[in-house]
Design a protein that fits this description.
Blueprint lengths: L3 E5 L3 H12 L7 E4 L3 H11 L2 E3 L2 H6 L1 E6 L6 H8 L9 E4 L6 H7 L5 E6 L9 E7 L5 H11 L3 E5 L5 H10 L1 H18 L4 H19 L4 H8 L5 H11 L2 H24 L3
Parallel strand pairs: 1-2, 1-4, 2-3, 4-5, 5-6, 7-8
Antiparallel strand pairs: 6-7
Helix pairs in contact: 4-5, 7-12, 8-9
Amino acid sequence: MNRGICFIGAGNMARSLIGGLIANGRAPGDIVACDIDTTQLDALQERFGIRTSSDNLAAAHEAEVVVLAVKPQVMPAVCQALAALPQGPAQLFVSVAAGTPVAAIDACLGGSRAIVRCMPNTPALLQLGATGIYANPRVSAAQRRLAESLLEAVGVVIAVDEEGQLDAVTAISGSGPAYFFYFIELLASAGVKLGLPPDTAARLARQTALGASTMALDDDVVDLRARVTSRKGTTEQAILSFQGNNLERLVDEATAAAASRARELGLELGQQE
């Protein structure tokens, strides 16, 4: 094996990771992407100058890291075909497939593999992602650092000690962008009900979300909220309304529902091995 990275699957997440790696100085020649869709491969090659292949096994055989960036439904078949690779933990497998348990991936790969399972989110496409990762016991310290550096190319990386905690990661950051999109949608709609033109309301809601999120990167959100919530002011009235309608309970219930569904999907996918 050389020190190359092989991507099995050339969809949005693979494209995002490849772009982030190259932007951070990785040589295009170190990267190979495989997919049955030659149109996607041609687009990646043209944009990034990487190598491409239609032979998963041959391409993976040369790599130090194999990134499994395929849909969960096809993961078993893809991994079973890769089981012919040399056994043992020397080669690192990184899965970005939602919900697929490490044990299921390992079984399909023939067992005894070093596997890092990841839960990225869609802002990774803008290199603003938040990714939770779990490494099985066969992953060495060096391999773990390698996986983290790979995923840090598209945002922040948070490691969890137990695989089950990835269900909570899914509920908070994996599904989280949709919650914020929904709130922006509702805030814009409220602006229209208060008399603003739709375009104006939408622009105000989006820019406010961007500004607030950017501020929250460097300061405690409780302190930030206190600073803009003047006693008996307009913001206080809105916050009191949220609290009176138990927004906290709604958020708790929503994220618990997402985490529960993530566990269910993991069990369903695990049964397919």
